[in-house]
Amino acid sequence: MNIAKVDLNLLVYLDVLLREGSVTKAANQLSITQPAMSNGLKRLRDLFKDPLLVRTSDGMTPTKRALELQPIIRDVLSRLESSIQPETDFDPLTSERTFRIMTSDYAESTLLLELVGRLANLAPNITLDLITPSDVTFHDVEQGKVDMAINRFDELPLSFHQKVIWYDTFSCVMSADHPLVEKCDLERYLNAQHIWVSKTGFGVGVGIDPNEVQKLGWVDAELTKIGKQRSIRVFTRHYHAALQIAKTQQLIATLPTKAAKLFSYDPEVVITEPPFDIPPIALKMAWSALLHHDAGHIWLRRLISDVAAELGSQ
User: Fold this and answer.
1) What number does CATH give the domain 170-279?
2) Which of 80-84, 128-132, 281-285, 308-312 has the lowest mean pLDDT?
3) Where do you find CATH 1.10.10.10 in the chain?
């Protein structure tokens, strides 16, 4: 195939089609008519000798060939977009830019608390817009509408760039007068009452069914492996709420250690190791290929990495 004979606009069409999974939505995204997009899809199928998108009960489903092409085409277009944009320097001292970051309550309470203090000295006019996981979708990040997502992710789109910020262990938090302070073995732990706290991923959250143990996350998944189950009385998506409840009520919060240590100087709180093994979790930073080469974005990613490294060494 002679690349000189290929309409490069077709690569843009394919990139948007694979993101949207719909001819109509892709046409709207590119501000072209639906017939024009349909014709573009036909030309793409001829070009790659593959149907690329097939209509199924789930909508337009990408073929194996399309999934192989998606990260390649996204990378090519991202590099092209970066090369034709005017190169500008980024001065954090004078910048008035707003960075939108999707973040969990866990990351907001630990990492970003320190980041805000650092920005006050290094970039006093920069604004952070911190958004909860329920406010955005992967599509928002992929389109660059959200600068980055900081959370714990089971899966991320192949087109995303990502970096592990740190690994964290788990700790138990309870009031200083809790009976388990004297001895926190597995039997006593299981006989106690607990607070569940977690919120990962993107999209609107739904209510929790206490009986669906396999969906409750890391702590309960590890208990299930050893044939055990704890008694959960409060479900929350906020770490500070879990810590306050553990401090004032006879309930135990088992949560990431960096969040638990927010109360490490409170004499009314005791922090102990769980009486069973829980694998460490990874806090990740993810961002769109569209922003990968942006000077301001690069500066912020480096600053976040530096702050995380310092917190991790403490």
Assistant:
1) 3.40.190.10
2) 80-84
3) 3-84
Classify residue 162 by its DSSP letter. E
> What's the topology of domain 98-162+283-313?
D-Maltodextrin-Binding Protein; domain 2 (3.40.190)
Residue 246 tokens, joined = 């553990």
pTM summary value: 0.67
- Residue carrying structure tokens 């992929």: 142
- Mind giving me the DSSP string for 90-144? --TTT---EEEEEE-HHHHHHHHHHHHHHHHHH-TT-EEEEE-GGG--HHHHHTT
Q: Provide, for the chain, the percentages of residues in helix, strand and coil under a 3-state DSSP scheme, each rounded to the nearest 5.
A: 45, 20, 35
pLDDT of residue 99: 95
> What pLDDT was estimated at residue 86?
56
C-alpha 149 chain-centroid distance: 5
Q: How many residues does the chain have?
A: 314
Report CA dihedral (138, 202, 276, 263) to the nearest 10 degrees.
110
